[in-house]
């Protein structure tokens, strides 16, 4: 008998949710049961049919079906990519309040099902929605994770790899803070293999320049806007980022990923959910990695934390 059941429930079968589902099916071996839930049941049904028709071409078999909240009971992970779009003239806080109502309609039935796994949130603004999930579910903080700056970090490593002509896998660099305008790159922590990039910039002034680092950071920060203006939404990259986090959890990898996690004194902060490098394994956030930031990086981090605090405090929960 196969006791290695790995079950994931996806709530929100829009572009982001289904990009994740498609990546899971194509990468293979990540989970063997995938349940799709959406307020639009017809859509979830159609998506399940469509994915099932591709299974014959997939690397490994899996069970995919449109389900109900009771199906969360024995799930390992509930991924949330459900959300509403911004209306004309609506403020960011209005949108946040409406998404909070969406989450109220989701978290309560998930918890009632007896779900005892890990929440992984992708809905924007992701750091706030992760904190909302934590507050509504009353789960332990290590079991409530947001995608945080995982995608931004992937974008950064791709751009740095291109700049230094090095495989991004050998670039160690993180985008931290809010997944949004106040995020930043602590340059003091960027490494090419084991050599720090600040040292490389110092040693090789002709080829590499600090201004280029600033430009790369700006490109990372604004890439979502550019993609949205070109094709209305971003979804493949985030779909693959969610897949990567799910794989780290189910594989008990202890991989370091920049997810949105609750700080409990790290980075001189408490309570806020914010993108920081974390060791991710079977039980969610195993440890928050505290980077040795410079004074100006600490200031940027506190600024980003404050942005998130202010947004969260404006919410009616
Ligand atoms: P979408 O409109 O295509 O999909 C949203 C889905 O949520 C729809 O299928 C809708 O029916 C469903 N939904 C709405 N209310 C629901 C409810 N009460 N219960 C269940 N399902 C419900 O949107 P999308 O492009 O897939 O984006 C989804 C979210 O992901 C947005 O908030 C977006 O901003 C966010 N996003 C996050 C990142 C990131 O890095 N974290 C990147 C891109 C997008």
Structure, explained:
- With 317 residues, the chain is of the alpha/beta class.
- The protein folds into 2 domains: 7-146, Rossmann fold (3-Layer(aba) Sandwich); 150-313, Alpha-Beta Complex (L-2-Hydroxyisocaproate Dehydrogenase, Chain A, domain 2), CATH 3.90.110.
- 43% of the residues lie in helices and 18% in strands.
- The protein is built from 9 helices and 12 strands.
- The protein has helices spanning 15-27, 41-52, 92-112, 126-137, 150-164, 197-203, 210-231, 236-250, 295-313; strands spanning 7-11, 33-37, 63-66, 77-80, 118-121, 144-146, 171-172, 191-192, 195-196, 255-264, 270-281, 284-288.
- The strands form 3 sheets. Strands 3-2-1-4-5-6 form a 6-stranded parallel β-sheet, with helices on both faces.
- Strand 8 (191-192) and strand 9 (195-196) form a beta hairpin.
- Helix 1 crosses helix 8.
- The protein is globular.
- It binds nicotinamide-adenine-dinucleotide (NAD).
Short overview:
The protein is an alpha/beta fold. It is built from nine helices and twelve strands.
Task: Detail the topology: elements first, then pairings.
Elements lengths: L6 E5 L3 H13 L5 E5 L3 H12 L10 E4 L10 E4 L11 H21 L5 E4 L4 H12 L6 E3 L3 H15 L6 E2 L18 E2 L2 E2 H7 L6 H22 L4 H15 L4 E10 L5 E12 L2 E5 L6 H19 L4
Parallel strand pairs: 1-2, 1-4, 2-3, 4-5, 5-6
Antiparallel strand pairs: 7-8, 8-9, 10-11, 11-12
Helix pairs in contact: 1-8, 3-4, 5-7
The chain binds nicotinamide-adenine-dinucleotide.
